[in-house]
Amino acid sequence: MSWHIDSWKDRPHAQEIAYDDADSVQSVVSKLRQLPPLVTSWEVERLKQHIAEAQEGKRFLLQGGDCAETLADCQPGIITNKLKILLQMSLVLVHAAKKPVVRVGRLAGQYAKPRSKATEERDGLSLPSYFGDLVNRPEFTAEARRADPRAMLDAYGHSALTLNFVRSLSAGGFADLHHPEYWDLAFLSRADLPLALREEYIQTSHRLSEALRFMEALGETTVDELTRVEFFTSHEGLNLHYESAQTRRVPRREGHYLLTTHLPWIGERTREIDGAHVEFFRGIQNVVGVKLGPKVDPKDAIRLFSRLNPENEAGKLVAITRMGAAHVQQSLAPLVDAVRNAGIRVLWVCDPMHGNTKSTNSGLKTRSFDDILFEIEQSFAVHHDSGTFLGGVHFELTGDDVTECIGGGLTEEDLDKNYASVCDPRLNYRQALEMAFRVGQWMGK
Ligand code: PEP
Ligand code: MN
């Protein structure tokens, strides 16, 4: 079974995109092959090194961003806020864990969405579902929902614009990170936060402020190391036409690199061992994430990991479990035990979002802050009992003041106020920051 850049085309393809014009797909793919890469193999290898260290417990992974990024949200304020919340969360975690945090955004390319149904019905009309801005558009019209190959070029362009801005902010140190006065800690004064927690968090935030002031005071001599923030990108590698078009050999390195993002992941719906996605991702050098839900058979997970990483290379695999609060205890332990017994190297990361999605009576998708917390807490516990450890967390979040998840200051009645997600519900700025304090609390113990 030899791998080549198009070998995925001979495999069963879950979530296949129904393009109706093969010639346009081919001309877009040819164009994408010529355009510069969005990331470099150096960065990809550096991330792999970081993940290898995280697999040894020397680093912790924080991954987060929108469920579905949109082209319309490619705006400076929105991008800045997303970067800000991720960086602030990472500092809370660094402080708690006393180890470096690898920061990975779900951004600059998180434009393709798997769907549980290929079509959507409204008022007797049936149209293709919305598969993300990389594929079609969310408006419910036949024209908008047609899979348009040119959307790949738009998404590539917007990824480049986003990444360019993120790189500039990161290189310049990003003042919002280092100035505690730019942090919004309003959640600390919320009446429903238990007093003991509130006091603990206030102390943590004071210690954090002191540490940041100290770093500032060190000034110019160490400015480069301290102010340059390292930041990586990730997205679900769903659209294989797009991903394979930006996959190439680079001078003086072995193998192929996927250069649309540092860390692509394979979703829960596309991880069949003989399917197109696993075939494609087994052939690239990048770190690869795999989502694993509560129905996963540990034996299948082992086969999957061995297919994706036959040499058991360090830093190569990130296992992102998304069991749900109701299943995490029963489902996670057998998986973790089997993988540990097989001697397979993975970084265990908890995605506490995708197993905890519910609908309100009015049909809005939401998630409960308490379920999210519970799944993380239980994941720490299961790993502890299995003699392994949780090496990272994966959130759907935004830096803006949206109302999509319940708890952490919001009730079901608040959801209508600013429900902005085009796909799954995200933590807002305050909920995400509080989440970091809560996770930090467990890590510090
Ligand atoms: C996602 O991360 O948005 C997603 C669809 O996840 P999963 O594949 O775990 O359902
Ligand atoms: Mn999602």
TrEMBL record:
Catalyzed chemical reaction(s): D-erythrose 4-phosphate + phosphoenolpyruvate + H2O = 7-phospho-2-dehydro-3-deoxy-D-arabino-heptonate + phosphate
Pfam family name, one: DAHP_synth_2
Chain sites annotated for binding Mn(2+): 67, 354, 396, 424
Transmembrane helix listed as a keyword: no
Annotated binding of phosphoenolpyruvate, by residue: 106, 268-269, 291, 322
Signal peptide: none
Name used for this protein in its record: Phospho-2-dehydro-3-deoxyheptonate aldolase
